Amino acid sequence: MEKAVDFGGGGRRVVVIGGGVAGSLIAKKLQFIADVTLIDLKEYFEIPWASLRGMVEPSFAERSLINHKDYLTNGRFVASRAINITNSDVLTAEGRLVAYDYLVIATGHDDRFPKIRNERLAEYQAENEKIKAAHSIMVVGGGPSDVELAAEIAVDFPEKKVTLVHDGPRLLEFIGPKASDKTLHWLKNKNVEVKLQQSIELDRISNENKTYITSSRETIKADCHFLCIGKPLASAWLKETILKDSTDGFGRLKVDDNLRIKGRKNIFAIGDITDIKEIKQGYLAQKHALIAAKNIKILMDGEKESKMATYKPHSIKVIVSLGRQDAVAQFQFTTLIGLVPGFIKSKDLFVGKTRKQMGLDPHIVDY
Ligand SMILES: Cc1cc2nc3c(=O)[nH]c(=O)nc-3n(C[C@H](O)[C@H](O)[C@H](O)COP(=O)(O)OP(=O)(O)OC[C@H]3O[C@@H](n4cnc5c(N)ncnc54)[C@H](O)[C@@H]3O)c2cc1C
């Protein structure tokens, strides 16, 4: 193990583990008032909700894969996996110890096969070529990523036969049944064939075998298939750390109203890794980042803890894009589908907005 790297900082050393939606924003916010180190597996952060558009339009991904160095101009970036935490340091997979006064855990979801930015862009290109070469495409799953992908393909490539197979009773089960029904209707109108309560034997599918048999013995012909597998929560590694008793039964970190890990004075957690009782969404992860940044500043400045901001869980607000113009939205009291929610999200998928929030040009990527 290497000697501890102490970057100085006079009680203002903030280490952020995880440079996703939440971690990148808090690192950016604190970089001019604290000594910030961001640790992540990749040299860039990817806007997750833009990923399905990148498959039908690979150049879209250029703006949604943001190098940490572009916004972290006054902090340092360590490209590694954090594997342990003590009361004073973070240990990385390379054996580097990074000392902290304040620690932020923002590990959200684990990227088991991290790719460098160019490899990720090439992956989008390859997926796009796969779509373009196929006459018929099967999407397996009925979650938001699967629905968004089926919709992107149906809108950009209306001549292709798209089939969506889902083993559950309805699409978008994480939101209300009205949204599911409206989405099903929308997809059918776009000639997407939707098969509910049917599964495909995943270990028997391959792109060579162009005929797929569902659990109801139905046959689906498809030149290729896509399986949008969600990334697992990145919490297993915490079991080896001082936070091993701070997780709930799902591996989520238990936080208080100030977004500090319960029982800890100088360790915060933000984003999807927290046990906050609300739907896990990126725009909420960004709100966590802003609250935690404020609270860390208060503590660093020696102000009273009672001045810290509190976070109140938000009620449900979800927009699932359906191609370039439409979307389905579930708000607290209503469900909408079509151009109105589409106007909010579907044209740019909040990419320009997110880039702007990170202090970058919403349109131009200069590499
Ligand atoms: C396809 C898709 C569409 C979505 N659509 C929307 C949407 O429209 N609107 C919305 O608000 N939300 C959306 N979400 C949800 C949103 O993306 C998540 O809520 C958000 O990404 C959570 O942010 P996070 O920072 O907590 O975690 P993540 O964004 O998952 O970031 C975690 C980071 O931690 C890093 N990491 C993990 N473990 C370690 C480790 N041990 N050491 C160092 N680094 C580590 C990872 O590499 C990653 O960069 C969508 C998600 C997906 C997948």
What does this structure look like?
This protein is of the alpha/beta class and 367 residues long. The chain has a domain at 4-41 and 80-109 and 231-314: FAD/NAD(P)-binding domain. It has helices at residues 21-30, 51-56, 61-64, 68-71, 117-133, 144-156, 177-189, 282-300, 339-345, 351-357; strands spanning 4-5, 13-17, 35-40, 44-46, 65-67, 76-79, 82-85, 89-92, 97-99, 102-105, 136-140, 161-166, 192-196, 211-213, 219-221, 224-227, 267-269, 318-322, 326-330, 335-338. The strands form six sheets. The chain has a five-stranded parallel sheet, covered by helices on one side. Strands 1-9-8-7 form a four-stranded mixed sheet, with no helix packed on it. Strands 13-12-11-16 form a four-stranded parallel sheet. β2 (13-17), α1 and β3 form a beta-alpha-beta unit. The longest helix has 19 residues, at 282-300. It starts with a strand and ends in a 10-residue tail after the last helix. Flavin-adenine dinucleotide binds at residues 17-23, 39-42, 45, 48-49, 51, 81-82, 106-111, 144-145, 234, 237, 271-273, 280-283, 285. Residues 13-288 form the FAD/NAD(P)-binding domain. InterPro entries: FAD/NAD-bd_sf, FAD/NAD-binding_dom. Putative FAD-dependent oxidoreductase. This is FAD/NAD(P)-binding domain-containing protein.
List the SSEs and their pairings.
Elements: E1 4-5, E2 13-17, H1 21-30, E3 35-40, E4 44-46, H2 51-56, H3 61-64, E5 65-67, H4 68-71, E6 76-79, E7 82-85, E8 89-92, E9 97-99, E10 102-105, H5 117-133, E11 136-140, H6 144-156, E12 161-166, H7 177-189, E13 192-196, E14 211-213, E15 219-221, E16 224-227, E17 267-269, H8 282-300, E18 318-322, E19 326-330, E20 335-338, H9 339-345, H10 351-357
Parallel strand pairs: 1-9, 2-3, 2-10, 3-6, 10-17, 11-12, 11-16, 12-13
Antiparallel strand pairs: 4-5, 7-8, 8-9, 14-15, 18-19, 19-20
Bound molecules: flavin-adenine dinucleotide.
Flavin-adenine dinucleotide binds next to α1, β3, α6 and α8.
